[in-house]
Write a structure and sequence with these properties.
This protein is an alpha/beta fold. About 45% of the residues lie in helices and about 10% in strands.
């Protein structure tokens, strides 16, 4: 079931492309930002195909501004579409999985390096995308008993959402180039949704610039203990040592994470 956030043109175009390639698809024009819309999108899939096994949450908008200029509406719109949209579309599917004991399903949620790393002028978008990563980690725990995997995609490609950013930064846009083509992300989603992807769960997969990688998730780098409550004098020693350990860890991860050719 294809939804383009109430855009009939986008949804109809995607459906036509899928059918032209020999597949089956059904359009839905409900908003992802309300529980009613989420249930409508879910019901479209059930009515059209008789069942549902895979959910890909990738609806998105941008309202980029620094915090000094960001109004409440800018914040709420991004949160509604991204973070709340993931909840609204996931909840009816999760209930369907539980009520029918439907095993081996897949949920793919879309985060962003803007939330995972941070990006200037995107406090709303970054907060929502970081929240999606946390949402996914918890959801993976809640649905694990049903054999459902929940993974997060951190994507990068030339799309309707990002092309203006490419152009603003003076980067040449070539939607067909392997490192910009959204197809690179579709292939990863397809693999994770297949039988081969069953053992990958609660992970963040980075797909952009022609590479595919797996991201480190929050974990302690180094820690200290002390007798009783920490004192300021002790923290004068502990905090610089922690930061030095973090810097060394970041350098090591940067080196290990650099993209290399896939072994033949």
């Amino acid at each position: 079931a294809i939804n383009y956030m109430a855009s009939s043109e986008g949804a109809d175009s995607a459906v036509a492309e899928i059918k032209a390639a020999g597949g089956e698809a059904a359009a839905n024009y409900d908003t992802v930002a309300t529980p009613e819309g989420g249930r409508g999108i879910f019901q479209t899939a059930i009515d059209a195909f008789g069942g549902m096994d895979i959910l890909v949450n990738n609806a998105g908008i941008l309202r980029d501004k620094t915090i000094f200029k960001m109004e409440e509406e800018d914040w709420d719109l991004v949160m509604d579409v991204h973070l709340k949209g993931h909840y609204c579309c996931t909840r009816p599917f999760a209930q369907y999985i539980r009520d029918n004991n439907r095993l081996g399903c897949r949920i793919l949620n879309f985060s962003s390096v803007s939330g995972l790393y941070g990006n200037f002028g995107q406090t709303n978008y970054g907060a929502a995308k970081s929240g999606i990563a946390g949402f996914s980690r918890v959801l993976a725990l809640e649905l694990e008993k049903y054999g459902t995997t929940v993974n997060t995609i951190s994507p990068g490609a030339a799309t309707r959402l990002t092309i203006p950013i490419y152009e603003m930064r003076g980067r040449k846009v070539d939607e067909k180039a392997p490192d910009q083509n959204p197809q690179q992300i579709a292939e990863v989603c397809t693999w994770l949704s297949s039988g081969e992807g069953q053992d990958i769960n609660a992970q963040i997969i980075d797909v952009m610039n022609g590479w595919v990688g797996i991201m480190q998730q929050p974990a302690l780098v180094k820690s200290f203990t002390t007798d009783g409550i920490w004192t300021l004098d002790e923290l004068d020693k502990a905090m610089p040592a922690l930061m030095e350990a973090k810097r060394a860890h970041d350098e090591e991860m940067k080196e290990k994470g650099a993209a290399v050719p896939l072994p033949k």
